[in-house]
Amino acid sequence: MVSRLLSVSVTTTLLIIISVFIMRRLRSSLSLRDTKKPDRPDRPDRTGSSPERAMLSRRLASALPDSVILPHDDAAFKQSMGSYWAQQECEVIPACVVRPRNVQQLCTAVTLLKREYDERGKQADEGEAQGLFAVRSGGHSPVAGAASIKGGVVIDLGLFSEVTPSEDGSSVTIGAGAKWMDVSKVLDEKGLAVIGGRNSAVGVGGLTLGGGLSFFSPRFGLVCSNILSYEVVLASGSVVNASASTNPDLWRALKGGSNNFGIVTRFRFRSFPSTKIWSGFLYMPAVRPAKVLAAFHEFVNRADSRDPSTAYDDHAAGPIACFTYIQRVGAQVIAVNLVYTKPLENEKQWPTCWRTSSFRSLFRFWSTCKVRTLTSATDEMNALNPPGRRQVFATTTIKNDPATLAAVHAAYRDGIASLRRVNVRGLVWTLVLQPLLPDWVRKGDANPLGLHDCADEPLVIVSFTINWDEGRDDEFVKTTTRRTVEQIDAFAAAHRTGHRYRYLNYCAEWQRPFKGYGAENWQFLRRVSKSYDPEGLFQKACVGGFKLDVEDGEA
Ligand SMILES: Cc1cc2nc3c(=O)[nH]c(=O)nc-3n(C[C@H](O)[C@H](O)[C@H](O)COP(=O)(O)OP(=O)(O)OC[C@H]3O[C@@H](n4cnc5c(N)ncnc54)[C@H](O)[C@@H]3O)c2cc1C
Ligand SMILES: *[C@@H]1O[C@H](CO)[C@@H](O)[C@H](O)[C@H]1NC(C)=O
């Protein structure tokens, strides 16, 4: 009796904790949207601007009078700076923002930037890097400086937001600056979907060019492997299409090559009929993480093609297992996202594949799993990841090995212990595990990620997503995150349970995702860069994001 009462009160307490947590996060996202962050703290001065840079801004503004936002246009400039997801990125203040209204305007901007780059190259000493501009779509990169540049030019693709399904419903043309919510709102109405992002506020451009993990990846492959064609503005200022038949090398390179080849204005996505999906989170106390790890391992192992007795249903997406420590309440919680992308016969029941998994019997104090639109499912993800906080991501890849999963969780716990000693205000420290199955990465078009030829066994993408309140903690949190990932990598190396792949869109700035694509693919990307951008505009003038290190030695 007493123990029963005790467990009820523990449950209630945990329920309250998690509700408070979610309400806070929701509220902070809403209030940030309302007040539009005019007085975000820690804004550095704007002295990144030199006379040459001011001149460049003026030149762009006179060529494109309605499409350049300068700092003296206070409201528009602040609005633009405040519209990044990570607070650190909001603090990278450019000299101007170019927001082209059409592809022609973008070509003009790139031509001017290329001219400036060529001129400076002549004046500058050999090999000097010349950060001039950054490219931005949804602004959700967690790496500061990936989609903005101090004292430089931001090319903001926000007005390239079209979502146009083809007449036969087999493809959809989507502007690079669209967000996934723009896409699903149009497609939900039509009973269509694309292999796209899982979070409504994330941008189409960055996610698609970095690889892309979708609820539909088990059925169709990675997001990048489902792009029929790209429209790209090259360093020369000209526009080309890249598809299986035109510029096929560029087409392949863009499937994971990020911003290294040109500026993509729009994508033609494969699409398919889709109505509602079953999706949601299970919230659990963090007292028995081993049970969650075991359920994760068991489910992912169903996809192990070396074991013919298990069958994997490719309408199931996830599990995405999130282990979170919340400093404000001094407690941990586990949330697991489960998805099923086929209509259910009985909407009240869990889909068979999940009902027969160990997740079904794990103790939970809350479940949000239900049948809903894709828009609703992606909004749920978004509500858990509000903008306006200091952020860091880092990632690694392991095999679906129980001992390594346990070591990952131990590293996560060690991280909490060292962060606790310093009391990082507002810290939310999250470990995320998600499967990456050999069968998924082989679906769709070939890409240079180096996963097609990976060992024939399930992989697990391990990522950390950390956020906190104050700039003074930046270095400490980053260092701790790095040390945590390195601890996992050391374990995996010693037990031969690691994998070289690092998902570019989850990488920290110190990581080198292209190295993880394998020497041959890395070499291929460098070759394509040399042929479409011989002077290296996108290597040396567009410095943000992950670069190919064209001039470094061999892999
Ligand atoms: C809350 C959250 C949820 C996420 N969920 C998912 C998920 O479900 N699946 C997944 O795969 N990833 C996910 N990610 C990771 C996401 O893919 C990356 O953050 C991605 O960079 C976001 O793209 P963006 O356009 O919003 O970012 P931006 O910051 O605008 O761009 C990111 C990088 O791409 C480059 N780039 C962007 N657009 C173009 C273009 N048109 N041409 C050339 N270069 C370009 C930029 O220069 C920059 O370096 C998530 C991230 C966050 C923060
Ligand atoms: C690229 O393809 C689109 C759609 O097929 C077409 O409208 C456009 O003219 C093409 N652009 C170039 C530069 O060939």
Offer a few descriptive terms.
555 residues; alpha+beta; Uridine Diphospho-n-acetylenolpyruvylglucosamine Reductase, domain 2; Uridine Diphospho-n-acetylenolpyruvylglucosamine Reductase, domain 3; Vanillyl-alcohol Oxidase, Chain A, domain 3; 3 domains; nine-stranded antiparallel beta sheet; six-stranded antiparallel beta sheet; 20% strand; binds flavin-adenine dinucleotide; binds 2-acetamido-2-deoxy-beta-D-glucopyranose; FAD binding; membrane; FAD-bd_PCMH_sub2; oxidoreductase activity; FAD-linked_Oxidoreductase
What is the secondary structure topology, with strand pairs?
Layout: H1 2-35, H2 51-63, E1 68-69, H3 74-81, H4 87-90, E2 96-98, H5 103-123, E3 133-136, E4 153-156, E5 163-165, E6 171-175, H6 180-190, E7 192-194, H7 204-210, H8 217-220, E8 227-233, E9 239-243, H9 248-253, E10 263-273, E11 277-285, H10 289-301, E12 316-326, E13 331-340, H11 352-355, E14 366-367, E15 370-372, H12 374-383, E16 390-399, H13 402-422, E17 428-436, H14 438-441, E18 459-468, H15 474-495, E19 498-499, H16 519-532, H17 537-541
This protein binds flavin-adenine dinucleotide and 2-acetamido-2-deoxy-beta-D-glucopyranose.
Residues 231, 239-241 line the site of 2-acetamido-2-deoxy-beta-D-glucopyranose (NAG).
